[in-house]
Amino acid sequence: MARPSGGAAKAQRPRAGTAERREEILRAAINTFGSKGYHNGSLAEVADQVGMTHAGVLHHFGSKNQLLIAALQYRDRMDVEHLDGQHIPSGADLFRHLAKTAGLNADRRGIVQAYAVLTGEAVTEGHPASEWVRQRFAGLRVEIVEALCEMVREAGVEPVDEAPLDRAASAVIGVMDGLQNQWLLDPTAVDLAATTAEAIDAIVASVVARAVAAARG
Hints:
By secondary structure, this protein is mainly alpha-helical. Helix 2 (about 15-40) packs across helix 7, helix 6 (about 90-105) packs antiparallel against helix 10 and helix 7 (about 110-120) crosses helix 9 (about 165-185). It is elongated and about 65 Å long. The protein folds into two domains: about 15-85, Homeodomain-like (Arc Repressor Mutant, subunit A), CATH 1.10.10.60; about 90-215, no CATH class. The protein has helices spanning about 5-10, 15-40, 45-50, 55-60, 65-80, 90-105, 110-120, 130-155, 165-185, 190-215. The N and C termini lie far apart (about 55 Å).
């Protein structure tokens, strides 16, 4: 397939002003959906926050459903924007990244609240974010299992059973999300960064030790 000409490629890229406007809308959507939920949060409220009309928001995102998914994707990009390649690392660095993310989240309550509300709502029938959230969890579990496998290999053995690693991956996600909910309800009762780091360290150390013991018989 022929590559597009320079002019065509340039025409397909959004203007800087358009990109900045879209980001403003996404931040407003996170704020609205995070405080009121997807169904109760309206496009009119999103539009008011950025000084636009309802039609103006639809011009950028097409529909409320598309805005929701774009807002969730934007939230995920914020988690990795400080990383090389803007992608989560592997091995032990992955778990350090997750702990660091918890620390960053302690200073961005709106983002955390939007994530908690929307992933919670996603379990309800017909919610537009259900498939996106399901795939996100599935992908994160794969990343965590691969990181655990790498750590087991660094300990000098090959994993003989991935089932415990799968369970550990689900536990890491559950710990992070559960602590975020507790923190949202009472920030003074939960040290989000330190508690997340300690819980992840405990899970990882336990599963790696058991995997090494099983491999060595």
